[in-house]
Specification:
Radius of gyration: 17 Å
Low-confidence stretches: none
Strand order of the largest sheet: 1-2-4-3-5-6-7-8
Structural class: alpha/beta
Largest sheet: 8 strands, mixed
Order of helices and strands: EEEHHEHHEHEHHEHEH
Number of helices: 9
């Protein structure tokens, strides 16, 4: 069952979200916060224009729906700045406007959007259908970037599936045109993407990445993954890290998602 809900995350802001619940759950289920990328919400929930539906099918963007069909509770927010939360009626998204406004307030778009996701976790933990100790995050592209930072800010996130957003800042965000909302001021002074994701440890992480992704080069993904692997091995939890480097573009893949969730959430859907 799909519900359209609004969760109050600030005094004057309510985050729109699509809440998917498997029919008649016999017990509380693990829940996944599913964060969309720069295509907006509709391709990620099997809706929208003909082009958006085609993109959904070709790039496997509907992971919120797919995982719900396989027995998980999922929630897919409209990330602040997209669709009905855009500052411009004529545009699908307003990332530049959100970035300018957050910087003026001493914040970042990613921090603000992660805050919204944290408040959705509050909602999930209050639901009878959800096991509050088994909450994860999944995201592709811009959603993958949020899935990179959210578990660092919120320890209630027990695992992460990061799609099309890993590698290195130097080879991607710094070298290739990206939306300004991906920029976190000063981050390269302190470390690389592998160092950031290492802060998830020892919690499980699945890196999902198409080898033909043209905005996050695969060589840097492999290099970053090797560095990340060293951290997990050092902590004695190498089994908590995995990668699906699939033969595809900037897209999602389900080659390993269900096995990964079964392994770490102890469920067989």
């Amino acid at each position: 069952t799909r519900h359209k809900i609004y969760v109050q995350t600030e005094r004057d802001y309510w985050s729109p979200a699509y809440f998917f619940v498997p029919h008649k759950p016999s017990e509380p289920k693990p829940a996944i916060v599913c964060l969309h990328g720069h295509s907006g919400i509709y391709p990620y929930i099997r809706e929208g224009s003909e082009d958006e539906r085609k993109k959904c099918e070709e790039l496997s963007l509907d992971y919120a729906v797919y995982l719900a069909e396989h027995g998980y509770v999922t929630i897919a927010p409209i990330i602040r700045g997209w669709n009905e939360t855009s500052a411009f009626d004529s545009q699908q998204r307003s990332c530049r406007r959100v970035t300018m406004n957050t910087l003026l307030h001493g914040m970042t778009p990613m921090g603000l959007r992660c805050w919204d996701a944290m408040r959705l976790i509050d909602f999930l933990q209050d639901r009878a259908e959800v096991d509050p100790e088994r909450i994860g995050v999944a995201g592709l592209s811009g959603g993958g970037t949020l899935a990179t930072y959210l578990p660092i800010l919120d320890k209630r996130v027990k695992l992460a599936m990061i799609g099309g957003a890993f590698g290195s800042y130097r080879s991607s965000i710094y070298a290739i045109p990206h939306c300004i909302c991906n920029c976190l001021p000063g981050i390269m002074e302190y470390g690389e993407m592998s160092d950031v994701v290492a802060l998830h440890a020892p919690r499980p992480v699945l890196i999902i990445h198409g080898i033909h992704d043209n905005i996050f080069p695969i060589d840097s993904v492999r290099e970053g993954y090797e560095k990340l692997s060293e951290v997990y091995k050092l902590l004695g939890v190498h089994e908590n890290l995995d990668a699906d480097l699939f033969d595809g573009p900037h897209a999602w893949s389900h080659q390993k998602t269900l096995r990964f969730l079964e392994k770490h959430f102890g469920t067989k859907q």
